[in-house]
Amino acid sequence: MKAGVGLFSALVLLLLMGGVFTQRSRQKKPIRRPAAVGKPSVPQPAVSAQPEPQEPTDFPPPILGPPSVFPDCPRECTCNPSHPNALNCENHNIRAIPVIPSRTHYLYLQNNYISEVTAESFVNATEIRWINLANNRIHQIDKKVFEKIPSLLYLYVQRNHLKEVPSGLPASLEQLRLGRNSISKVPAGAFNKMGNLTLLDLYHNQLSDSDLEKNTFKDLKSLMQLNLAHNVLKKMPAGLPNNLIQLYLDKNRIDDVPKDYFRGLHHLAFVRLNYNQLSDKGLPKYVFNITTLLDLQLSHNQITSIPLFNGRLEHLHLNHNSIEILFRGNACKFLLSQKFATKMRLRVPYRESS
Ligand SMILES: *[C@@H]1O[C@H](CO)[C@@H](O)[C@H](O)[C@H]1NC(C)=O
Ligand SMILES: *[C@@H]1O[C@H](CO)[C@@H](O)[C@H](O)[C@H]1NC(C)=O
Ligand SMILES: *[C@@H]1O[C@H](CO)[C@@H](O)[C@H](O)[C@H]1NC(C)=O
Protein backbone atom coordinates (compact mmCIF):
# COMPACT_ATOMS: atom_id res chain seq x y z
CA MET A 1 0.00 0.00 0.00
CA LYS A 2 2.84 2.35 0.75
CA ALA A 3 4.27 1.57 -2.65
CA GLY A 4 0.94 2.60 -4.06
CA VAL A 5 1.12 5.97 -2.44
CA GLY A 6 4.61 6.31 -3.77
CA LEU A 7 3.46 6.14 -7.35
CA PHE A 8 2.20 9.67 -7.32
CA SER A 9 2.78 12.97 -5.69
CA ALA A 10 -0.75 14.12 -5.04
CA LEU A 11 -3.71 12.07 -4.07
CA VAL A 12 -7.23 13.24 -4.45
CA LEU A 13 -9.82 11.03 -2.96
CA LEU A 14 -13.46 11.64 -3.37
CA LEU A 15 -15.32 10.00 -0.62
CA LEU A 16 -18.90 10.47 -1.33
CA MET A 17 -21.93 9.49 0.56
CA GLY A 18 -23.89 6.76 -1.16
CA GLY A 19 -26.79 8.98 -2.17
CA VAL A 20 -24.64 11.78 -3.46
CA PHE A 21 -22.47 9.34 -5.24
CA THR A 22 -25.36 7.63 -6.95
CA GLN A 23 -26.59 10.93 -8.25
CA ARG A 24 -23.24 11.92 -9.59
CA SER A 25 -22.57 8.61 -11.19
CA ARG A 26 -25.65 8.93 -13.30
CA GLN A 27 -24.34 12.03 -14.97
CA LYS A 28 -22.38 11.16 -18.04
CA LYS A 29 -18.92 12.55 -17.96
CA PRO A 30 -18.21 14.88 -20.82
CA ILE A 31 -16.70 12.91 -23.62
CA ARG A 32 -15.36 13.64 -27.00
CA ARG A 33 -18.54 13.44 -28.92
CA PRO A 34 -18.63 12.85 -32.63
CA ALA A 35 -18.57 16.10 -34.55
CA ALA A 36 -21.87 17.87 -34.97
CA VAL A 37 -22.17 16.42 -38.45
CA GLY A 38 -25.70 15.38 -39.11
CA LYS A 39 -27.04 17.05 -36.03
CA PRO A 40 -30.52 18.32 -36.73
CA SER A 41 -31.09 22.01 -36.38
CA VAL A 42 -34.59 21.50 -35.04
CA PRO A 43 -34.90 21.80 -31.30
CA GLN A 44 -35.06 18.39 -29.71
CA PRO A 45 -37.70 17.66 -27.15
CA ALA A 46 -36.31 17.13 -23.68
CA VAL A 47 -36.33 13.35 -23.55
CA SER A 48 -36.06 13.17 -19.79
CA ALA A 49 -39.33 15.09 -19.44
CA GLN A 50 -41.25 12.60 -21.55
CA PRO A 51 -43.46 10.26 -19.60
CA GLU A 52 -43.14 6.59 -20.33
CA PRO A 53 -46.29 5.45 -22.13
CA GLN A 54 -48.47 3.59 -19.68
CA GLU A 55 -49.52 0.12 -20.59
CA PRO A 56 -52.78 0.88 -22.35
CA THR A 57 -55.77 -1.38 -22.50
CA ASP A 58 -56.95 0.45 -25.54
CA PHE A 59 -54.60 2.42 -27.76
CA PRO A 60 -55.55 6.04 -28.10
CA PRO A 61 -55.94 7.28 -31.68
CA PRO A 62 -52.89 8.96 -33.21
CA ILE A 63 -52.63 12.66 -32.57
CA LEU A 64 -52.94 14.26 -35.97
CA GLY A 65 -50.73 17.19 -36.86
CA PRO A 66 -52.03 20.24 -38.68
CA PRO A 67 -52.37 20.02 -42.46
CA SER A 68 -48.92 20.50 -43.90
CA VAL A 69 -47.51 22.46 -46.80
CA PHE A 70 -45.78 19.18 -47.70
CA PRO A 71 -48.20 16.85 -49.48
CA ASP A 72 -46.08 13.86 -48.39
CA CYS A 73 -46.21 14.73 -44.69
CA PRO A 74 -47.90 11.85 -42.80
CA ARG A 75 -50.87 13.13 -40.80
CA GLU A 76 -49.56 11.61 -37.57
CA CYS A 77 -46.42 13.73 -37.87
CA THR A 78 -45.64 17.39 -38.19
CA CYS A 79 -43.46 18.83 -40.91
CA ASN A 80 -41.91 22.18 -40.18
CA PRO A 81 -41.45 24.20 -43.40
CA SER A 82 -38.24 25.74 -42.06
CA HIS A 83 -36.79 22.25 -41.40
CA PRO A 84 -37.81 20.26 -44.47
CA ASN A 85 -35.41 17.44 -43.56
CA ALA A 86 -36.94 16.74 -40.17
CA LEU A 87 -40.01 14.62 -39.56
CA ASN A 88 -41.47 15.04 -36.09
CA CYS A 89 -43.67 12.16 -35.04
CA GLU A 90 -42.78 11.94 -31.36
CA ASN A 91 -45.50 11.76 -28.68
CA HIS A 92 -48.25 11.13 -31.20
CA ASN A 93 -49.72 7.84 -29.94
CA ILE A 94 -48.42 6.14 -33.06
CA ARG A 95 -48.58 2.35 -33.31
CA ALA A 96 -47.32 1.86 -36.85
CA ILE A 97 -44.59 3.88 -38.50
CA PRO A 98 -46.03 5.84 -41.45
CA VAL A 99 -44.33 5.95 -44.85
CA ILE A 100 -41.36 8.23 -44.37
CA PRO A 101 -40.92 10.92 -47.07
CA SER A 102 -37.71 10.68 -49.05
CA ARG A 103 -36.59 14.18 -48.02
CA THR A 104 -36.28 13.06 -44.37
CA HIS A 105 -32.87 13.16 -42.73
CA TYR A 106 -33.97 13.36 -39.10
CA LEU A 107 -36.77 11.13 -37.93
CA TYR A 108 -38.27 11.53 -34.47
CA LEU A 109 -40.53 8.68 -33.39
CA GLN A 110 -39.74 8.50 -29.70
CA ASN A 111 -42.43 8.09 -27.02
CA ASN A 112 -45.03 6.22 -29.03
CA TYR A 113 -46.47 2.69 -29.00
CA ILE A 114 -44.62 1.27 -31.97
CA SER A 115 -44.03 -2.47 -31.65
CA GLU A 116 -42.39 -3.31 -34.93
CA VAL A 117 -40.15 -1.59 -37.43
CA THR A 118 -40.81 -2.82 -40.95
CA ALA A 119 -39.07 -2.10 -44.23
CA GLU A 120 -42.17 -0.73 -46.00
CA SER A 121 -42.07 2.50 -44.02
CA PHE A 122 -38.54 3.17 -45.16
CA VAL A 123 -38.79 2.14 -48.78
CA ASN A 124 -38.17 5.68 -50.05
CA ALA A 125 -36.35 7.11 -47.07
CA THR A 126 -32.85 6.54 -48.35
CA GLU A 127 -31.40 9.78 -46.97
CA ILE A 128 -32.02 9.22 -43.27
CA ARG A 129 -29.12 10.09 -40.95
CA TRP A 130 -30.82 10.00 -37.59
CA ILE A 131 -33.62 7.81 -36.23
CA ASN A 132 -34.94 8.18 -32.72
CA LEU A 133 -37.21 5.30 -31.68
CA ALA A 134 -36.61 5.56 -27.96
CA ASN A 135 -39.35 4.64 -25.53
CA ASN A 136 -41.66 2.57 -27.68
CA ARG A 137 -42.60 -1.11 -27.50
CA ILE A 138 -40.37 -2.37 -30.25
CA HIS A 139 -39.57 -6.07 -30.13
CA GLN A 140 -38.65 -6.53 -33.75
CA ILE A 141 -36.69 -4.58 -36.35
CA ASP A 142 -36.71 -6.03 -39.83
CA LYS A 143 -33.13 -6.17 -41.03
CA LYS A 144 -34.25 -5.04 -44.47
CA VAL A 145 -34.97 -1.61 -42.98
CA PHE A 146 -31.27 -0.84 -43.01
CA GLU A 147 -30.57 -2.04 -46.50
CA LYS A 148 -32.30 1.07 -47.76
CA ILE A 149 -30.62 3.59 -45.47
CA PRO A 150 -26.90 3.17 -45.94
CA SER A 151 -25.94 6.55 -44.52
CA LEU A 152 -27.59 6.25 -41.11
CA LEU A 153 -25.40 7.82 -38.42
CA TYR A 154 -27.45 7.76 -35.23
CA LEU A 155 -29.85 5.02 -34.19
CA TYR A 156 -31.56 5.38 -30.83
CA VAL A 157 -33.69 2.41 -29.75
CA GLN A 158 -33.26 2.60 -25.98
CA ARG A 159 -36.26 1.80 -23.74
CA ASN A 160 -37.91 -0.82 -25.90
CA HIS A 161 -38.55 -4.56 -25.79
CA LEU A 162 -35.74 -5.89 -27.96
CA LYS A 163 -34.40 -9.32 -27.01
CA GLU A 164 -31.41 -9.19 -29.31
CA VAL A 165 -29.20 -6.67 -31.03
CA PRO A 166 -30.83 -5.97 -34.42
CA SER A 167 -29.18 -7.64 -37.40
CA GLY A 168 -28.10 -5.88 -40.56
CA LEU A 169 -27.21 -2.58 -38.90
CA PRO A 170 -25.47 -0.28 -41.37
CA ALA A 171 -21.69 0.09 -41.24
CA SER A 172 -22.11 3.87 -41.32
CA LEU A 173 -23.43 4.13 -37.74
CA GLU A 174 -21.71 6.51 -35.34
CA GLN A 175 -23.97 6.13 -32.33
CA LEU A 176 -26.05 3.14 -31.34
CA ARG A 177 -28.18 3.27 -28.23
CA LEU A 178 -29.83 0.03 -27.15
CA GLY A 179 -29.99 0.59 -23.40
CA ARG A 180 -32.96 -0.52 -21.34
CA ASN A 181 -34.14 -3.36 -23.51
CA SER A 182 -34.13 -7.07 -22.67
CA ILE A 183 -31.22 -7.97 -24.89
CA SER A 184 -29.63 -11.30 -24.14
CA LYS A 185 -28.29 -12.07 -27.59
CA VAL A 186 -25.76 -10.47 -29.88
CA PRO A 187 -25.94 -12.13 -33.30
CA ALA A 188 -22.56 -13.09 -34.71
CA GLY A 189 -21.06 -10.17 -36.58
CA ALA A 190 -23.66 -7.71 -35.29
CA PHE A 191 -21.08 -4.93 -35.02
CA ASN A 192 -18.88 -6.00 -37.89
CA LYS A 193 -17.47 -3.31 -40.14
CA MET A 194 -18.78 -0.48 -37.98
CA GLY A 195 -15.49 1.35 -38.15
CA ASN A 196 -17.15 4.72 -37.47
CA LEU A 197 -19.11 3.80 -34.37
CA THR A 198 -18.04 6.02 -31.46
CA LEU A 199 -20.75 5.20 -28.93
CA LEU A 200 -22.26 1.83 -28.12
CA ASP A 201 -24.77 1.79 -25.32
CA LEU A 202 -26.00 -1.60 -24.14
CA TYR A 203 -26.76 -0.43 -20.63
CA HIS A 204 -29.45 -2.23 -18.63
CA ASN A 205 -29.95 -5.41 -20.62
CA GLN A 206 -29.47 -9.10 -19.82
CA LEU A 207 -26.13 -9.78 -21.42
CA SER A 208 -24.00 -12.51 -19.91
CA ASP A 209 -20.43 -13.57 -20.67
CA SER A 210 -21.44 -16.14 -23.23
CA ASP A 211 -23.26 -13.50 -25.28
CA LEU A 212 -20.07 -11.56 -25.91
CA GLU A 213 -17.43 -13.20 -28.02
CA LYS A 214 -13.77 -12.43 -28.33
CA ASN A 215 -14.37 -10.58 -31.58
CA THR A 216 -17.77 -9.01 -30.87
CA PHE A 217 -16.21 -5.53 -30.62
CA LYS A 218 -13.23 -6.20 -32.84
CA ASP A 219 -14.14 -3.96 -35.77
CA LEU A 220 -15.11 -0.94 -33.69
CA LYS A 221 -11.95 1.01 -34.38
CA SER A 222 -13.46 4.39 -33.52
CA LEU A 223 -15.34 3.31 -30.43
CA MET A 224 -14.84 5.78 -27.58
CA GLN A 225 -17.62 4.86 -25.20
CA LEU A 226 -18.82 1.37 -24.35
CA ASN A 227 -21.57 1.07 -21.80
CA LEU A 228 -22.30 -2.44 -20.58
CA ALA A 229 -23.42 -1.42 -17.12
CA HIS A 230 -26.34 -3.20 -15.51
CA ASN A 231 -26.06 -6.56 -17.23
CA VAL A 232 -25.14 -9.95 -15.77
CA LEU A 233 -21.48 -10.20 -16.78
CA LYS A 234 -19.14 -12.16 -14.55
CA LYS A 235 -16.05 -11.47 -16.61
CA MET A 236 -14.57 -8.36 -18.15
CA PRO A 237 -15.60 -8.25 -21.82
CA ALA A 238 -12.89 -9.53 -24.15
CA GLY A 239 -11.34 -7.86 -27.15
CA LEU A 240 -12.02 -4.20 -26.41
CA PRO A 241 -11.10 -1.88 -29.26
CA ASN A 242 -7.94 0.22 -28.84
CA ASN A 243 -9.41 3.70 -28.99
CA LEU A 244 -11.79 3.25 -26.12
CA ILE A 245 -11.94 6.20 -23.70
CA GLN A 246 -14.85 5.27 -21.46
CA LEU A 247 -15.69 1.81 -20.20
CA TYR A 248 -18.76 1.44 -18.01
CA LEU A 249 -19.34 -1.89 -16.33
CA ASP A 250 -21.19 -0.91 -13.17
CA LYS A 251 -23.79 -3.29 -11.74
CA ASN A 252 -22.54 -6.56 -13.12
CA ARG A 253 -21.15 -9.56 -11.25
CA ILE A 254 -17.53 -9.14 -12.14
CA ASP A 255 -15.12 -10.53 -9.55
CA ASP A 256 -11.87 -10.47 -11.44
CA VAL A 257 -9.86 -8.22 -13.76
CA PRO A 258 -7.17 -10.15 -15.66
CA LYS A 259 -3.63 -8.92 -15.15
CA ASP A 260 -2.98 -7.34 -18.53
CA TYR A 261 -6.58 -6.57 -19.28
CA PHE A 262 -6.07 -2.86 -20.03
CA ARG A 263 -2.84 -3.30 -21.94
CA GLY A 264 -3.11 -1.76 -25.37
CA LEU A 265 -5.92 0.61 -24.43
CA HIS A 266 -3.86 3.74 -24.86
CA HIS A 267 -6.71 6.22 -24.56
CA LEU A 268 -8.65 4.77 -21.68
CA ALA A 269 -9.59 7.55 -19.25
CA PHE A 270 -12.79 6.48 -17.48
CA VAL A 271 -13.35 3.08 -15.92
CA ARG A 272 -16.44 2.37 -13.90
CA LEU A 273 -16.81 -0.87 -12.01
CA ASN A 274 -19.11 0.21 -9.21
CA TYR A 275 -21.43 -2.43 -7.79
CA ASN A 276 -19.54 -5.54 -8.77
CA GLN A 277 -17.95 -8.32 -6.75
CA LEU A 278 -14.34 -7.26 -6.86
CA SER A 279 -12.08 -8.19 -3.98
CA ASP A 280 -8.32 -7.80 -3.60
CA LYS A 281 -7.86 -11.29 -4.94
CA GLY A 282 -9.47 -10.35 -8.24
CA LEU A 283 -7.40 -7.20 -8.70
CA PRO A 284 -3.79 -7.78 -9.71
CA LYS A 285 -1.50 -5.24 -8.14
CA TYR A 286 -0.68 -3.13 -11.19
CA VAL A 287 -3.85 -3.64 -13.18
CA PHE A 288 -4.90 0.03 -12.89
CA ASN A 289 -1.46 1.43 -13.60
CA ILE A 290 -2.82 2.98 -16.78
CA THR A 291 -1.12 6.22 -17.77
CA THR A 292 -4.18 7.77 -19.39
CA LEU A 293 -6.64 7.00 -16.60
CA LEU A 294 -8.42 10.04 -15.10
CA ASP A 295 -11.42 8.55 -13.37
CA LEU A 296 -11.62 5.18 -11.65
CA GLN A 297 -14.78 4.10 -9.90
CA LEU A 298 -14.75 1.01 -7.72
CA SER A 299 -17.45 1.79 -5.19
CA HIS A 300 -19.63 -0.93 -3.70
CA ASN A 301 -17.20 -3.81 -4.05
CA GLN A 302 -15.27 -5.85 -1.49
CA ILE A 303 -11.85 -4.30 -1.79
CA THR A 304 -9.74 -3.90 1.34
CA SER A 305 -6.64 -2.15 0.00
CA ILE A 306 -6.24 0.74 -2.39
CA PRO A 307 -5.15 -0.38 -5.82
CA LEU A 308 -2.10 1.19 -7.41
CA PHE A 309 -2.77 3.80 -10.02
CA ASN A 310 -0.99 6.48 -11.95
CA GLY A 311 -0.30 10.03 -10.77
CA ARG A 312 -2.66 11.70 -13.24
CA LEU A 313 -5.74 10.10 -11.84
CA GLU A 314 -8.21 12.82 -10.88
CA HIS A 315 -11.08 10.90 -9.35
CA LEU A 316 -11.04 7.71 -7.39
CA HIS A 317 -14.27 6.39 -6.02
CA LEU A 318 -13.86 3.76 -3.35
CA ASN A 319 -16.79 4.27 -1.06
CA HIS A 320 -18.62 1.22 0.23
CA ASN A 321 -15.61 -1.04 0.34
CA SER A 322 -13.61 -1.95 3.41
CA ILE A 323 -10.44 0.01 2.88
CA GLU A 324 -7.93 1.20 5.38
CA ILE A 325 -5.60 3.89 4.11
CA LEU A 326 -2.48 4.76 5.99
CA PHE A 327 -0.91 8.04 4.94
CA ARG A 328 2.69 8.02 5.92
CA GLY A 329 3.99 11.18 7.48
CA ASN A 330 0.87 12.36 9.17
CA ALA A 331 -0.12 8.91 10.20
CA CYS A 332 -3.77 9.53 9.80
CA LYS A 333 -5.91 6.59 9.27
CA PHE A 334 -9.16 6.55 7.45
CA LEU A 335 -11.59 3.79 7.32
CA LEU A 336 -13.64 3.92 4.20
CA SER A 337 -16.85 2.16 4.80
CA GLN A 338 -20.57 2.58 4.90
CA LYS A 339 -20.04 4.35 8.17
CA PHE A 340 -19.16 7.51 6.26
CA ALA A 341 -22.38 9.39 6.52
CA THR A 342 -21.39 12.73 5.13
CA LYS A 343 -20.15 13.92 1.82
CA MET A 344 -16.47 14.42 2.05
CA ARG A 345 -13.86 15.57 -0.32
CA LEU A 346 -10.39 14.80 0.80
CA ARG A 347 -7.23 16.16 -0.69
CA VAL A 348 -4.01 14.90 0.70
CA PRO A 349 -0.96 16.57 -0.78
CA TYR A 350 1.77 14.07 -0.25
CA ARG A 351 5.23 13.71 -1.56
CA GLU A 352 7.22 10.67 -0.83
CA SER A 353 10.90 11.11 -0.27
CA SER A 354 11.95 8.08 -2.23
C1 LIG B 1 -41.62 6.10 -53.40
O1 LIG B 1 -41.21 7.08 -54.32
C2 LIG B 1 -41.71 6.83 -55.63
C3 LIG B 1 -41.08 7.85 -56.57
O2 LIG B 1 -41.06 9.11 -56.01
C4 LIG B 1 -43.24 6.94 -55.59
O3 LIG B 1 -43.77 6.70 -56.86
C5 LIG B 1 -43.77 5.91 -54.61
O4 LIG B 1 -45.18 6.07 -54.47
C6 LIG B 1 -43.13 6.09 -53.25
N1 LIG B 1 -43.51 4.98 -52.38
C7 LIG B 1 -44.15 5.19 -51.26
C8 LIG B 1 -44.48 3.96 -50.48
O5 LIG B 1 -44.42 6.30 -50.83
C1 LIG C 1 -16.82 6.57 -42.04
O1 LIG C 1 -16.52 7.95 -41.95
C2 LIG C 1 -15.72 8.42 -43.03
C3 LIG C 1 -15.38 9.87 -42.73
O2 LIG C 1 -16.52 10.59 -42.41
C4 LIG C 1 -16.47 8.27 -44.32
O3 LIG C 1 -15.70 8.72 -45.40
C5 LIG C 1 -16.82 6.78 -44.51
O4 LIG C 1 -17.60 6.62 -45.65
C6 LIG C 1 -17.57 6.27 -43.30
N1 LIG C 1 -17.75 4.83 -43.41
C7 LIG C 1 -18.94 4.29 -43.62
C8 LIG C 1 -18.97 2.81 -43.71
O5 LIG C 1 -19.95 4.94 -43.76
C1 LIG D 1 3.28 1.82 -14.40
O1 LIG D 1 3.16 2.33 -15.71
C2 LIG D 1 4.24 3.09 -16.13
C3 LIG D 1 3.91 3.68 -17.47
O2 LIG D 1 3.45 2.71 -18.35
C4 LIG D 1 5.48 2.22 -16.18
O3 LIG D 1 6.60 2.98 -16.57
C5 LIG D 1 5.72 1.65 -14.81
O4 LIG D 1 6.79 0.75 -14.83
C6 LIG D 1 4.47 0.93 -14.31
N1 LIG D 1 4.70 0.56 -12.92
C7 LIG D 1 4.50 -0.66 -12.49
C8 LIG D 1 4.81 -0.87 -11.06
O5 LIG D 1 4.10 -1.55 -13.21
TrEMBL record:
Belongs to the small leucine-rich proteoglycan (SLRP) family. SLRP class II subfamily. Residues 27-64 are annotated as: Disordered. It comes from the Eukaryota. The keyword NADP does not apply. GO terms for biological process: cell adhesion. The keyword Transmembrane does not apply. Binds the alpha(V)beta(3)-integrin. GO terms for cellular component: extracellular space. Its main location: secreted. It is found in: Secreted, Extracellular space, Extracellular matrix. InterPro entries: Leu-rich_rpt (IPR001611), Leu-rich_rpt_typical-subtyp (IPR003591), LRR_dom_sf (IPR032675), LRRNT (IPR000372), SLRP (IPR050333). It comes from Gasterosteus aculeatus aculeatus (three-spined stickleback). May be implicated in biomineralization processes. Has a function in binding of osteoblasts via the alpha(V)beta(3)-integrin. SMART domains: LRR_TYP, LRRNT. SUPFAM superfamilies: L domain-like. Gene3D superfamilies: Ribonuclease Inhibitor. Residues 1-22 form the signal peptide. The lineage of its organism: Eukaryota, Metazoa, Chordata, Craniata, Vertebrata. Residues 72-106 form the LRRNT domain. This is Osteomodulin. Keywords: Cell adhesion, Disulfide bond, Extracellular matrix, Glycoprotein, Leucine-rich repeat, Proteoglycan, Repeat, Secreted, Signal, Sulfation.
